[in-house]
Specification:
Helix content is 65%, strand content 0%. It is an all-alpha fold. Helix 2 runs antiparallel to helix 3. The N terminus is likely disordered.
């Protein structure tokens, strides 16, 4: 899974005994941003945990996975179940009361891309379609994590 890294810079001020000390300490993130990004992080963890098993199974096979294979079928079922729960959790995070739109939008975009991946799993698509959909999910993951980092928290 891709992760976004926030680089925090702080400037240390030097003032005389009577002068003010300047500090560029990061401001505390709003409570709703912390709550939403924490919940979104749980969605990412769940999606990663459940989809990775399916991705590993299809990565070893043909362009068109053999969905009659019990291993592929089982991984597909558990992956879809986990992705459904992750999408629900991500959408719930995006609807946190008072959440800034610049935080909610990438979470919703991630949920839409993950839903597309979920549908492809249900339709038993080929590996190339999964790879394209997973690339979009990864891009949306990075965007949401960057938005959380810019808000002073992390996902």
């Amino acid at each position: 899974m891709l992760t976004a890294t926030a680089v925090l810079c702080s400037a240390l001020g030097s003032g005389a005994a009577t002068g003010p000390t300047a500090s560029a300490q990061p401001a505390q993130a709003p409570a709703e941003a912390i709550a939403a990004c924490t919940q979104f992080a749980r969605a990412l963890d769940l999606a990663s945990l459940t989809y990775s098993g399916f991705a590993d199974v299809i990565a070893l096979g043909e362009v068109y996975p053999d969905y009659s294979d019990p291993l592929v079928s089982s991984a597909n079922t558990s992956g879809r179940t986990g992705l459904r729960a992750a999408v629900s959790t991500a959408l719930s995070a995006s609807r946190t009361p008072g959440l800034a739109p610049q935080l909610a939008a990438p979470m919703r975009s991630w949920a839409l891309a993950a839903t597309k991946l979920l549908l492809l799993m249900g339709l038993r698509a080929d590996v190339d379609r999964f790879n394209a959909a997973a690339a979009q999910v990864n891009e949306d993951t990075e965007n949401a994590q960057r938005a959380c980092a810019e808000a002073g928290t992390r996902a």
